[in-house]
């Protein structure tokens, strides 16, 4: 058996990456991602991880170097956050369209302006269309486990798409929890060696990363899209295999909590889910039928699963640390689209909060459920505002 | 000899026939460049002394060595005329297509 | 530094860059062709956005016989690092990692990643094929466009005679990193270029070659004048052939006298508007540079 350690989300992710044994790590430091790359560089130094560690001079180069390493068939890791993610944004569709199964940890952090180093999800949600799989994890254990599982998903021959694993900045990256660290032999049993034809090979030379004109371009994108749509089956397969080897399961594309008969469901992303569960327990004790549905993957978006799980509810609310200025929270847009697409008509609310690291409290979440229960004229509700909103 | 070659390429009829990624055989040619020319370089093999200046300076690599002299792959020659200009003894001349 | 000299007789018959759609008379494609003939089939080449990637990689017309990839525009240096690190980690043996970027891809958008790659001491060869403007997008000014050149973003009018800035000195910028090997070259002196590529490949660390490769379209010269224009640029002293290694600059060619600068400039339509005073300014710049080179590099 492995060992149990009291470590942060960043540390846990680094432990997961150590177990995944990437050939190449390229990273540029940015708060609050730094600890994961510091730990990895220490592991490379003390030889507990046999990887080439590249010190790049920017996030654009972090991803370009990762693409370069992947292009010769190497398993590759990088990590970033916020402005760094935006700085490498050009490289994201490049890596995804090239079908390089790179794994990247993103420490969710607000984006400037105003400058802010604390957590919200506007950085990664702004990149939903980059062609990457986007996963959001809740706690340190899931961080470690998904570091490992993300390679299984990304490198699966049915997928071959890079994965961005999102950890809420500070709230998850810097919070210490007890984490089970599996053994290397368990990890090796779970994660096969990376073998691919999608690489430059000295014995079988290829031209790659090429241009494709209008006559053939759409087909390449359709193939990429179909690979994304196959992710849900691979996630199921990965989770079953994971459970066999490690004795833990993290659910499918979503993870519900007391939603089977729930009349009011709060949809969450990431670390806030834990508090939401506690609120659900309290309200359930008082006889109110509430539940939480955690979305684990925002791309591909599990629209059928979400629609099926909430179709019996009287009202649902999407709680997110995001605003697409001039419209609404992006997760909310996606949830509503899932409802319409699957013919589910449930009153749907958007709770926007936690921006720039603003705390989302237990009471805030209780209020969200209160709004769902009593109904509200405005579908968009900003929570946790410290002042009276008197601006037109 | 290693060189990209013209292939009998058939456009995919089914999606599954496309490469899954932007990764495909190296040196896979499906079109020629001969249509770009209005004039073609012609080597006077009686004059050519095999110095290979033209071979060294051809941007398209279409001049090749043959029996100690040079010949030209007209499938890919664009007719730029650099070979004519770099030949020290005017053994190559441009002729109308 | 010793290398077996590659020449017209013993160079490989293999052609690695073939059937591409570069304009007739393209200097850049000659630089790519000869670099690959020098390094051989076990070469991984990365090319960023620019003419050579645009003309060589249009699925299903793929014009490299060796392993080749288009890099991000700004990321030539860093994709090379990644390729080298990946190849090393996977235990590959006997290969070269080569990047070939244009002047804009090198001196402007790619300079940060190039600097990083040199700093990381990666065993990669970086060749800048310099045609002195963003030719692929239609002849816009780059950091390596010379003084006076008319481009589509430095028009020649009554008030401004083309580009007002001097060409960035990439060779010395790279040398300032104390790189193990750097060189300047010209496609007109093709054996010299080949020898430098060979030397670069023997360096255990990063190397950089800056090769002038005229663009007939952008320079306004006939398509068969590419080599002659490149030769005139060196012979009139507006380009020099040099190397940097072991912490020192080495001048390879010190002409007793220069050919006429105005003849070099006047043969190109991009300089057609220059006044005698403009040309005098260019000649003064040349003389000052050579005085410094002869003082410090010889």
Task: Please describe what this structure looks like.
The complex is a heterotrimer of chains A (392), B (97) and C (298). By secondary structure, chain A is α/β, with parallel strands linked by helices. Helix content of chain A is 39%, strand content 20%. In chain A, the strands form three sheets. A seven-stranded mixed β-sheet of chain A has the order 3-2-4-5-7-6-14, with helices on both faces. In chain A, helix 11 links the parallel strand 12 and strand 13. In chain A, helix 1 packs across helix 2 and helix 8 packs antiparallel against helix 10. Chain A is globular, with a radius of gyration of 21 Å. Chain B has one domain: 2-Layer Sandwich (Alpha-Beta Plaits), CATH 3.30.70. Chain B is an alpha+beta fold and 97 residues long. With 298 residues, chain C is of the alpha/beta class. Chain C has one domain: 3-Layer(aba) Sandwich (Rossmann fold). Classes of the chains: A alpha/beta (392), B alpha+beta (97), C alpha/beta (298). At the A-C interface, strand 3, helix 3, strand 9 and strand 10 of A face helix 2, strand 2, strand 4, helix 3 and helix 5 of C.
């Amino acid at each position: 058996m492995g060992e149990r350690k009291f470590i942060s989300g960043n540390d846990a992710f680094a432990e997961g990456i150590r177990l995944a044994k990437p050939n190449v790590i390229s990273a540029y430091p940015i708060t609050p991602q730094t600890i994961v790359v510091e730990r990895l560089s220490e592991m490379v130094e003390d030889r507990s991880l046999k990887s080439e560690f590249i010190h790049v001079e920017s996030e654009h180069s972090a991803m370009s170097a990762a693409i370069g390493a992947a292009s010769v068939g190497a398993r590759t890791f990088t990590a970033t956050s916020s402005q760094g993610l935006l700085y490498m944004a050009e490289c994201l569709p490049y890596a995804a369209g090239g079908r390089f199964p790179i794994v990247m940890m993103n420490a969710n952090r607000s984006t400037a302006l105003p400058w802010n180093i604390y957590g919200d999800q506007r950085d990664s949600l702004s990149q939903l269309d980059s062609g990457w799989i986007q996963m959001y994890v809740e706690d340190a254990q899931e961080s470690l486990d998904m570091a490992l599982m993300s390679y299984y998903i990304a490198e699966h021959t049915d997928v071959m798409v890079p994965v961005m694993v999102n950890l809420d900045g500070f709230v998850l990256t810097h919070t210490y929890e007890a984490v089970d660290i599996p053994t290397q032999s368990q990890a090796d049993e779970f994660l096969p060696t990376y073998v691919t034809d999608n690489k430059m090979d000295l014995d079988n030379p290829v031209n790659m990363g090429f241009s494709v004109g209008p006559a053939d371009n759409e087909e390449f994108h359709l193939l990429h899209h179909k690979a994304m749509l196959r992710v849900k089956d691979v996630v199921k397969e990965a989770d079953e295999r994971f459970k066999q080897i490690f004795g833990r399961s993290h659910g499918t594309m979503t993870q519900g909590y007391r939603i089977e008969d729930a009349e009011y469901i709060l949809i969450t992303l990431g670390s806030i889910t834990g508090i939401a569960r506690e609120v659900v327990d309290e309200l359930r004790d008082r006889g109110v039928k509430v539940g939480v549905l955690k979305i684990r993957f925002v791309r591909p978006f599990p629209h059928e699963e979400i629609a099926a799980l909430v179709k019996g509810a009287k009202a649902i609310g999407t709680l997110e640390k995001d605003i697409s200025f001039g419209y609404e929270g992006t997760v909310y847009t996606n949830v509503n689209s899932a409802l319409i697409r699957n013919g589910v008509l449930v009153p749907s609310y958007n709770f926007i909060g936690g921006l720039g690291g603003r705390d989302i409290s237990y009471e805030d979440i209780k209020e969200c459920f209160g709004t769902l229960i009593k109904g509200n004229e405005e579908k968009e509700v900003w929570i946790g505002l410290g002042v009276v909103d008197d601006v037109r | 000899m290693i060189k990209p070659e013209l292939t009998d390429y058939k456009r995919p009829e089914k999606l599954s026939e496309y490469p899954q990624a932007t990764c495909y055989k190296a040196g896979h040619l499906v079109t020629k460049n001969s249509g770009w020319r209005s004039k073609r370089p012609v080597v006077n093999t009686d004059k050519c002394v095999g110095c290979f200046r033209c071979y060294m300076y051809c941007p398209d690599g279409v001049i090749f060595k043959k029996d100690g002299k040079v010949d030209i792959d007209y499938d890919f020659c664009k007719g730029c005329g650099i070979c004519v200009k770099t030949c020290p003894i005017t053994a190559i001349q441009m002729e109308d297509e | 530094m010793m290398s077996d000299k590659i020449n017209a007789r013993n160079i490989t018959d293999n052609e690695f860059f073939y059937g591409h759609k570069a304009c007739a008379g393209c200097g850049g494609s000659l630089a790519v062709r000869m670099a690959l003939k020098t390094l051989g089939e076990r070469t991984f080449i990365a090319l960023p956005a620019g003419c050579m990637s645009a003309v060589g990689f249009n699925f299903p017309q793929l014009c490299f016989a060796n392993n080749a990839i288009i890099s991000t525009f700004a990321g030539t240096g860093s994709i090379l690092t990644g390729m080298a690190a990946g190849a090393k980690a996977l235990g590959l043996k006997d290969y070269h990692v080569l990047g070939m970027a244009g002047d804009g891809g090198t001196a402007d958008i790619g300079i940060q990643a190039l600097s990083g790659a040199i700093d990381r001491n990666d065993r990669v060869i970086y060749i800048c094929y310099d045609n002195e403007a963003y030719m692929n997008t239609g002849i816009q000014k780059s950091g390596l466009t010379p003084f006076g050149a008319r481009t589509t973003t430095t028009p020649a009018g009554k008030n401004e005679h083309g580009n007002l800035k001097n060409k960035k000195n990439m060779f010395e910028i790279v040398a300032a990193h104390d790189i193990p090997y750097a060189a300047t070259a010209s496609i007109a002196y093709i054996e010299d270029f080949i020898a430098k590529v060979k030397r670069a490949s023997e360096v255990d660390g990063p190397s950089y070659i800056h090769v002038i490769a005229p663009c007939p379209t952008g320079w306004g010269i006939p398509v068969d004048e590419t080599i002659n224009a490149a030769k005139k640029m060196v012979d009139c002293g507006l380009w020099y052939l040099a190397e940097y290694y072991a912490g020192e600059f080495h001048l390879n060619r010190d002409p007793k006298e220069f050919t006429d600068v105005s003849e070099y400039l006047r043969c190109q339509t991009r300089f057609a508007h220059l006044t005698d005073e403009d040309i005098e300014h260019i000649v003064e710049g040349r003389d000052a540079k050579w005085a410094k080179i002869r003082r410090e590099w010889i």
